[in-house]
Model the fold of this input.
Amino acid sequence: MATDTSVPSLEAGAELERTLDRLEARMEALQFSLRARRASPRFELWRHDLRETRETWFRLVDPDGQDLTPEGS
Done:
């Protein structure tokens, strides 16, 4: 009797897509905050958070690849 292994794969794929969507939305919000509030005392925290969020996004999209985004962009 064969087992259907595509169902968990579809669920895992859907969860990955949701995670990537959330990370993209977070990156957009952080980029907006950085542009809109450069004088904020939280600026460096947002920049650090954006960098970590980007790294996570790239790791999930291409686990064997590299983040080719230059620092500070």
In short: The mean pLDDT is 84. DSSP finds two helices and no strands in the chain. The CA atoms of residues 20 and 57 lie 6 Å apart.
